Amino acid sequence: MWNVLERARGLREGLRELPDRARVSAQLSRQSGLLWSLTRPGLVELAKVFTSGSQNPSKIYRVHGRNSPSKPALVWRGRAITWAELDGRIDRFSSGLARRGIGRKQSVVLMMRNRPEHVELGAAAARCGAAAVSVSWRSTAKELTYLLNHSGARGIVTEPELLPVVEEASPALSATLLSNVFVVGSEGVRSPKLEATPLDALLEEPARELTADTGADEDAAVVVYTSGTTGKPKGAVRKFPKDTMQAAMRFINETPMRVDDVHLVTCPLYHSTAFGFLSLSHVLGATVVLMDEFKAEPFLELVERHAVTTTAVVPTMLHRVMELPEETRSRYDARSLRVVFTGGAPLPGPLAIDFMDAFGDVLYNFYGATETGLVTLGKPEDLRAAPGTIGRAVPGNDIRLLDDDKREVPAGQVGELYVKNKLLVAGYHEDEEATRSSMVDGYFSVGDLARRDRDGRYFIEGRKRDMVISGGVNVYPAEIEGILEQHPDVGEVAVVGVPDREWGERVRAFVVPRAGATLDEAALKAFARERLAGPKVPRDFVVLDALPRNPTGKVLKRELRERAV
């Protein structure tokens, strides 16, 4: 009886949502050209996606494999893989993983640089009900040991150059995992400590039909470990319920993304920014070009060579591009760019304006996290009108800014940003306490502080753990950083609090000069005093050649606090 009532309730909810789903789908079709690109086979497969209980990423490859079999889906180092080829390889990899005992409610770790196999294995794991766990290819043996054991992985896929790290970690790994070490292009590679299998061995047998009891609809997930700038990384578990496609459509509808796009992946694929925007591009059936590793001038060269229309970067990458001499930038034709998404770290207002002045109003600043998906979007007009904004809430996101007592703060005041949407992670793997402490009434927070102006635009004021309390006054580093970034000789800046006997904490600013500029501490302090209240003016300025960052561009403020002056 209970099951009947639950099904009836679900049917009623689905019927209520139908008009909204139809509106969002119609808008997507009109804006992106998706509707006009669909053939009958593609429509049939897309209908299956919308009527299934899960919308894991592997299903979209089937849609476009049927719809546009000869269109390039991935381009890497000049090699193009069509949608039909990609879907077929995903099928065979999925069957191969299942034959090796990696299936429902199990996981496989991907430790690779940007390459097609990273995309293929992620989708293949989802297709057989397993979880793909993406980790940094820069991981040390100690870090890898923790990630493999904490995730409970039953296998790992890596590259020949990275195999020594797995070898070093092997004494602390399970026999099951060590029996499933797959190496990309590893014919002829021998390991003295491991029985490594060439990845292509998984393709040797034809794909087999995955039966309904594989659990792919209920269990398919990705696990992304957070960057761990303050301690052990946490594994954010993302599943793909029936609302996943709807949430993706809502975001795409806020942008100029189109079916005929060529999207350039610049961030590492283990990073949520790269994975997220590759997935959104593939929802539309766009072609995706993989960049091995970001460098400013090669980035512009790829944009010109492939007539790239969209890309996603972290602000540090924008800074590197703008550091190139004007004569170097002008050597490349980047007029094809229509959308440059940026996020993952604060976007300085002056940098945004400089970039748009050079490349046109193509910059879109998003806020999101591994745990929350995409939450806000600042469009070019927002970035010009309110520099530093992360924009307005993307439809489908309910945002609350809460004080320490979990009460909502009024417009203009700073509170901890909590969000509820259809893309919240299921939680942190094997860490119920971390999951519970991040939630309030179904809203999730990653610890960011923000304020909202009267026009509904949001501004990040820093991390809650980074807030400085000096003489009892709350000081938000992002505000100070935003002011100092306006100084013509300052290229980058990071503000932290350091212990002070009299004030409890005092403000210290680490600054990187613009190319060719010289910074004077007295002049910087005078500049800050004219624009900031007393407790916010940095007591110390430390000039650095570069700010310490993790591989995804986030400033490591912990290292700055620990640095002796």
Compact summary:
With 565 residues, the chain is of the alpha/beta class.
Q: Could you give the order of strands across the largest sheet?
A: 2-1-11-10-12-13-14-15-16
Q: From the 3D structure, determine the CATH topology of the largest domain.
A: Rossmann fold
The CATH class of the largest domain is identified as Alpha Beta
Query: At the fourth CATH level, what is the homologous superfamily of the largest domain?
Result: ANL, N-terminal domain
Helix content: 25-40%
Instruction: Tell me the major beta sheet.
Output: 9 strands, mixed
What is the distance, rounded to the nearest whole angstrom, between the alpha carbons of the first and last residues? 70 Å
Instruction: Give the CATH architecture of the largest domain.
Output: 3-Layer(aba) Sandwich
Overall mean pLDDT score?
Answer: 87
Describe this structure in words.
This protein is of the alpha/beta class and 565 residues long. It has three domains: 52-225, Rossmann fold; 244-465, Rossmann fold; 467-562, GMP Synthetase, Chain A, domain 3. It has 21 helices and 28 strands. It has a nine-stranded mixed beta sheet with strand order 2-1-11-10-12-13-14-15-16, with helices on both faces. Strand 20 (439-440) and strand 21 (443-444) form a beta hairpin. The protein starts with a helix and ends with a helix.
